[in-house]
Amino acid sequence: MRSESYEFFKNLMATTSPSGFEAPGQKVWCDYARQFADEVTTDAYGNAVAVVNPDGDPKVVFDGHADELGMMVKYIDDKGFLYVQKIGGVDPALVRGKRVDVHTNQGPVRGVTGATAIHLQSRDDKDKKVPKWPELFIDIGAADGDDARRRVQVGNTVTFTDGFEMLSEHVGVARAFDNRVGTWCAIEALRLAAEHRDELQCAVYACSSVMEEVGGAGAAMNAANLKPDAAVVVDVTHATDSPGVDMKEHGEVKMGHGPTLSVGRENHPALNALIASVADKADIPIQYEAFGIAGGTNALSYYSKEGGIPCSVLGLPNRYMHTTVEMIDLRDMQRIADLLAAVARRIEKGQRFAVPV
Predict the structure, then answer these.
(1) Among the options 22, 212, 289, 326, which is catalytic?
(2) Bridge partner residues of 50 (DSSP)
(3) What 3-state DSSP class applies to 93?
(4) Model pLDDT, residue 7
(5) According to CATH, what is the number of the domain 3-68+176-346?
């Protein structure tokens, strides 16, 4: 990976971006995009869009979502403890005993999610495996409720402090690879495509969309604003090559073996065929997986809009999704960027994607 691209990735991962509060991360993304994009814009809710060759035809979108999971302060009791609600699909079983940052206008306030010592738990408490959200609390070391309310307020967002680090030459861990890795792939593909502007026939849009984890509204806004002729959505997908995952139920996806190309439902067969052909010619390994039935991506926000926008989903294999120790192979991430850039160069002037009948 290019050193400048890696530094951008680290900066992106270090910047908090919970759903609905993505602006700090979007600024990092836009600052990077302005170095090579023909135009960079944002909309009312903070979706960020960069384009190369805007007069080209067709309009092709590469989309990743900028938001990460988090929590929000819901109640502060008179003892100074904070009670929270989740932002997105946070697993309550993984919340206790973590360091967190409460994000205020004056800067982050460090706290911990309370975890009562096992010695002090009743037998009933020990038998409970998953706490309920009203049982989870954050301790910021406040003297009392008034002290806590001077430092934080209801509506402040909360993120875990676990940062990005490499475990080996290629494998990294972090909270919330889901899905800033997708926004990295989209804009890195745009940068690579921009190196061959003279060859591009299509207009290439990279989108860093907001609020996927809470319903996918950002991508729906991009569909309405851009009216693309095709969209390739990049998101993480479940790597199923770790203990405890039943491949008969969830399919076989291996970390480090290339991105996945989803098949069925929103995934358009003609666009999929183009991507597969480009990957084969460029010697980029891809894995195949059936469309997700336990979740979705921003493709669900694109494909039914504007009378039908042909979509494909490229998945980056990710172990331990929606935890603070998500794990990816950065070679898979680079492969997606390379593949998208090659797809952009392959698309012909005026090309459209339709199912032959």
Answers:
(1) 212
(2) 40, 206
(3) helix
(4) 98
(5) 3.40.630.10
Contacts 24+ apart (CB under 8 A), 193-197: 193/52, 193/340, 193/341, 193/344, 193/345, 194/36, 194/37, 194/52, 196/341, 196/345, 197/52, 197/53
Amino acid 139 reads: D
- pLDDT for 116 equals 83
Which H helix or E strand runs over 24?
helix 23-33
Residues whose CB is less than 8 angstroms from the CB of residue 249 and which lie 6 or more positions away in sequence, other chains included: none
Round to whole Å and give the CA distance between 333 and 313: 14
Q: Which tokens is 186 given?
A: 């989209």
Domain map of the chain by residue range?
3-68+176-346, 70-160
Bridge-based pairing state of the strands 287-290 and 203-209 = unpaired
Residue-wise pLDDT for 297-327, tens only, equals 999 999 999 999 999 999 999 999 999 999 9
pLDDT in tens, 193-211: 999 999 999 999 999 999 9
Q: How many residues does the chain have?
A: 357
pLDDT of residue 294: 82
CB 50 within 8 A of CB 33: yes
Is residue 131 within 8 Å of 95, Cβ to Cβ? yes
Distance, in Å, from the CA atom of 136 to the CA atom of 71, rounded to the nearest integer, reads 11
Q: Model pTM greater than 0.85?
A: yes
Q: Could you state, in chain order, the average pLDDT of each consecutive group of 10 residues for the chain (357 residues)?
A: 97 97 98 98 98 98 98 98 97 95 98 87 71 95 98 98 97 97 98 97 98 97 98 98 96 98 98 98 98 92 97 98 97 98 98 93
**172-to-66, 254, 256, 281 alpha-carbon distances in Å:** 19, 15, 11, 28
Q: Is 4 a catalytic residue?
A: no
- Provide CB contacts within 8 A for 250, sequence distance 6+: 238, 240
Domain 70-160, second-level architecture: Beta Barrel (2.40)
